[in-house]
Every structure is written in structure tokens, then in C-alpha cells.
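Help needed: design a sequence for this.
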């Protein structure tokens, strides 16, 4: 009963949508296990570009059941709009399933997120303002509304009567925002329930049944390891667990049911929103990565901050996700740069330090770089690893050695066929451990 997890090893936007899409042929179910409509997956199929925020990208394949697991926070309006968009483009969405235990992002969550971020302005986290944090906060406070509640008017009303006055008080007293009317919220919420009714199930049972039947289940994370609320650069993180462990809690699988973890990397680094980013480039090279890599947020359209590949957190990310294989994306974007730098260490107050570090320490570190000669060749038509320019191959080998896990797939463009499959290899941990030992 194979379950495969696809997880981002950086700050999100590594190209997990493409990885999922590549594996889709062998999979019968794709489960999103955390996050909400803060995420964005771009999948390119032929001339068609699909931008998805909430519905798992498996929906593009008729044989796949796309599942939104209990660890996800769901904005029903986004979900319904996204399904309507897919239907308009000829994609059947009747197979989508939503966990009844998933929490609802209510309109007051969105407003709280917006108001708090606007108040903090330049000191904010730079959230996507989709209400993600406030919805997870209500979950933790046990005052959340769950998807299943949308089907039960009496219980829903009771829950709203308890929580709404508190959230309204914060909105109006602290932020001067107009309070929400309970009756109007009830009308909207029951309408969402009516429209989603046939999709709402216990997704853990669904996933377990699929695994028992020997089906291949793919669990897809949103965001990335460095945005994980436990393992990321707190407080500049999202409010859930993108790491592979999140697939167990939010996707409904047990640790021993996971047979493979595919870690997804981009050949350079990007970050959206605030927070430390030691290898950030604010020069022409940064602009090259931004423009050539089209590094604009799928959800907010914001420019992503761009920088050199940071290998310092890599070994930690590989370890905590127990990565079995890596997909390295966007190597083609580096073509044309005279030299390429790889951050292999940090110096803080005159001494070398390793991951993990606190956000305030990370803000002060000085990156230590290894420099690689660049290459000019266009890589976008390559399908064989042996055809890669020697300098590109050397760069990939260096990342692999630092990761301590095999890079089995290298992507040279957004389309499915722009992917190089590398020979499986054994990576000796000794290549990576001495320099990147976990402190
Ligand atoms: P939130 O998830 O909207 O609360 O935002 C928290 C942090 O995570 C912010 O820095 C966001 O920019 C970042 N973030 C959230 N979703 C994504 C994503 O899909 N890709 C990259 N960054 C994200």
C-alpha cells in the first residue's frame, strides 16, 4: 500500500505541482494535507496553464480522486469558484472530496488577517491575507467552524453565537472594522454547505480504504519546510506543518504507511513575504532569476524575493522529511549566468554556524559561498542527464552531495516532457555530514 509524499524543501514555490503531475499516472488519489488558498500550484499541460489554490492538482486527471484533507483550512468561496473555473474548462470536479473535519476560513478570519497585517505594515509577516493564521488559531482555540458544520444549521448557529461576538469585538475595537452579522453569515455558510454537500466525507477513512485496496495515494504539501510552523523561520512562517509529518496528521496516513518522500527543490532560492533570507540578491542576478524564472506569486501576484541556492538548511530539511528522492526544478533558469553561487555555510559573529537558527540570528548571518562556473547552453530541450553541460552537472552533483539524498529528477521547463530522469544512485551521507552536521 504505497503512499508517497511530495514536500517542498525550501520556502515554497519549488514546483511541487509539476512533481505531482508527473507522478499522476501511477496514482489514484491525491490528498492535500495542510495550508489553504494561500498556496498556488501552476500546472502546464500543452498550451493550457492551470493555476490552482485549493483543489489538488490531481483533479486534472480523470482517474484521480482529489482530496482536501482534515489538515487544510478551506475557504468555501475559493473552493466553489475554483471548481466552477475547472468545470468551465471541461474538467470534471465531481470527484473532489473535502474532509468534514477540515476547518472553514470564515470571512471574519480573512478580515482579521488583513487588518492585522495592515496594522503591522512593514513589521508584518507578509501573509497572503487569506485568513490562514486566524482560521488555524480558531482551530487551536477549539472555536473553529468545520466543513461538516456547514451541513447542520443548529450546531452551526450555536458555534457562531459563541465565537462571532469575540471576533467582532477584536475587529471593531482593535481595528475599526465593521462587525459581521450572524444571520448573513448563516445564509452564506448554509449555501456553501448546500453546494458542497456531496463532496463532504471523512477523508481519513477514504484514504485508509484506498491504501487497504492497494491503491497508490499521493499526499501533497503546500508551502515548504522553511515555512513550517515548527521547523521554519518562526515567526515568519505559515500556520501549519508543510513537512512530511503533516501528511500523517492532516492527510490521514500513519508514518509507516508512507513509502516514499519526494523532496522538491528549485535550483535557486525564492521567498515571498517577510523574514530572513540570507542569500537574497538585490542586483541584476536577482532580477535575472525574477524575470527569467517568472517568480511572481500564484496567489498574490507579489514579486518573489530571489537569491542563490541556500544549502545550509538543506540537510536539516532532508532529515526531518526523511526524503527518499529529490526533484530539482528550474535548472534551465540559471543558463546564461557567468558564475553560480551555492551557499554552503553561514558566519555569525565571526564563527561558522549551522541550521537551525532563530530568525533574528538568521538576519545577521553572512553567507559563505562556493562558486561554480556557469553555462550558456539552453537546457530546455534536454531529456538525458548525459547531455547536461559539465558545469550544470557539477552544480547538481554538489547540491545532491550536500543534501545527502539522490536527485532523481531534474526539470528543465514547466512541461511534463521537460524532465530529466537521472540514474538512481546511492549517496554517501559522509559527503554531506561533516560540513552540515545538525547542531
Ligand atoms: P500565510 O500562510 O498567508 O499566513 O502567510 C505566512 C507566510 O507564508 C508569508 O510569508 C507568505 O508569503 C508565506 N506563504 C504562504 N503561502 C505560500 C506559498 O504558497 N508560497 C510561498 N510562500 C507562501
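Sure. Designed sequence:
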Amino acid at each position: 500500500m504505497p503512499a508517497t509524499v511530495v514536500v517542498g524543501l525550501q520556502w515554497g514555490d519549488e514546483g511541487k505541482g509539476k512533481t505531482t503531475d508527473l507522478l499522476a499516472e501511477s496514482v489514484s488519489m491525491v490528498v492535500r494535507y495542510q495550508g489553504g488558498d494561500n498556496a498556488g500550484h501552476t500546472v502546464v499541460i500543452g498550451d493550457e496553464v492551470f493555476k490552482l489554490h485549493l483543489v489538488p492538482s490531481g483533479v486534472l486527471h480523470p482517474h484521480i480522486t482529489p482530496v482536501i484533507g482534515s489538515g487544510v483550512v478551506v475557504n468555501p468561496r475559493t473552493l466553489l469558484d475554483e471548481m466552477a473555473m475547472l468545470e468551465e474548462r471541461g474538467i470534471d470536479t465531481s470527484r473532489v472530496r473535502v474532509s468534514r473535519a477540515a476547518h472553514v476560513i470564515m470571512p471574519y478570519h480573512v478580515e482579521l488577517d488583513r487588518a492585522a497585517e495592515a496594522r503591522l505594515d512593514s513589521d508584518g509577516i507578509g501573509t497572503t491575507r487569506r485568513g490562514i493564521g486566524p482560521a488555524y488559531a480558531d482551530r487551536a482555540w477549539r472555536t473553529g467552524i468545520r466543513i461538516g458544520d456547514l451541513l447542520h444549521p443548529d450546531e452551526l448557529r450555536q458555534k457562531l453565537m459563541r465565537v462571532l461576538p469575540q471576533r467582532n469585538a477584536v475587529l471593531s475595537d482593535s481595528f475599526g472594522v465593521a462587525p459581521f452579522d450572524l444571520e448573513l453569515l448563516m445564509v452564506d455558510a448554509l449555501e456553501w454547505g448546500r453546494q458542497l454537500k456531496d463532496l463532504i466525507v471523512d477523508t481519513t477513512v477514504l484514504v485508509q480504504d484506498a491504501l487497504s485496496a492497494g491503491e497508490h495515494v499521493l499526499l501533497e504539501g503546500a508551502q515548504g519546510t522553511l515555512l513550517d510552523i515548527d521547523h521554519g523561520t518562526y515567526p515568519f512562517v505559515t500556520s501549519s506543518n508543510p513537512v512530511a509529518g503533516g501528511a500523517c496528521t492532516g492527510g490521514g496516513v500513519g508514518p509507516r504507511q508512507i513509502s516514499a518522500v519526494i523532496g522538491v527543490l528549485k535550483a535557486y532560492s525564492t521567498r515571498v513575504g517577510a523574514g530572513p533570507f540570507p542569500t537574497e540578491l538585490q542586483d541584476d542576478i536577482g532580477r535575472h532569476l525574477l524575470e527569467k524564472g517568472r517568480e511572481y506569486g500564484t496567489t498574490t501576484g507579489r514579486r518573489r524575493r530571489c537569491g542563490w541556492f541556500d544549502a545550509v538548511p538543506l540537510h536539516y530539511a532532508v532529515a526531518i522529511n526523511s526524503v527518499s528522492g529529490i526533484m530539482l526544478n528550474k535548472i534551465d533558469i540559471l543558463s546564461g549566468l557567468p558564475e553560480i553561487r551555492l551557499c554552503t555555510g553561514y558566519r555569525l559573529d565571526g564563527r561558522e554556524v549551522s541550521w537551525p537558527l532563530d530568525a533574528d540570528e538568521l538576519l545577521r548571518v553572512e553567507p559563505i559561498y562556493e562558486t561554480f562556473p556557469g553555462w550558456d547552453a539552453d537546457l530546455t530541450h534536454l531529456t538525458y542527464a548525459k547531455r547536461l553541460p559539465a558545469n550544470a552537472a557539477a552544480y547538481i552533483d554538489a547540491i545532491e552531495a550536500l543534501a545527502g539524498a539522490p536527485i532523481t529528477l531534474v526539470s528543465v521547463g514547466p512541461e511534463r516532457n521537460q524532465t530529466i530522469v537521472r540514474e538512481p544512485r546511492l549517496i554517501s551521507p559522509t559527503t554531506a555530514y561533516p560540513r552540515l552536521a545538525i547542531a
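The pocket of inosinic acid is lined by residues 11-13, 38-40, 125-128, 130, 132-133, 222-223, 227, 236, 238-239, 272-273 (CB under 6 Å).
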